[in-house]
Amino acid sequence: MTCLYPGSFDPITNGHLDVIKRALKIFDKVVVAIAQSEHKNPCFNLEKRKDLALLATQNLQNVEIITFTNLLVDLAKELEIKTVIRGLRAVSDFEYELQIGYANNALWSEFETVYLMPNLKNAFISSSIVRSIAAHGGDVSSLVPKEILPFLKEQTCM
Known about the structure:
Elements: E1 2-7, H1 14-24, E2 29-35, H2 46-57, E3 63-68, H3 72-79, E4 83-87, H4 91-107, E5 112-116, H5 127-135, H6 149-154
Parallel strand pairs: 1-2, 2-3, 4-5
């Protein structure tokens, strides 16, 4: 069985990798679906986020990286994937993710959401925290895959 793991991945973090690895314990394949997310004003363009995710997951089996610009439910129908994985870091994530899960299910009743929590050491990591720390010259080497560090240092929005 295959699952979708959607997000902006701007940039992909060790928290994202943790959720991907956990999902691979449950599912045969994880399709990481990187959303356009222009409303989030991403630091990296869509293709660069895909390239960084490919670099970060290159040693993981059964992970596919794709991009999308449509509704997640429409992508899921197109790919014939009925399960989405969502990461929950804190209680504050739960209310938002619950609303999204209900909305997706209202759009397609066969679409199920599975919530996974990252390891405690990754529970506070988010892309926005990584961007903020990097923008102020902080060390993000423990927060992101080592393969993408050079790209963060050269990015002007950080």
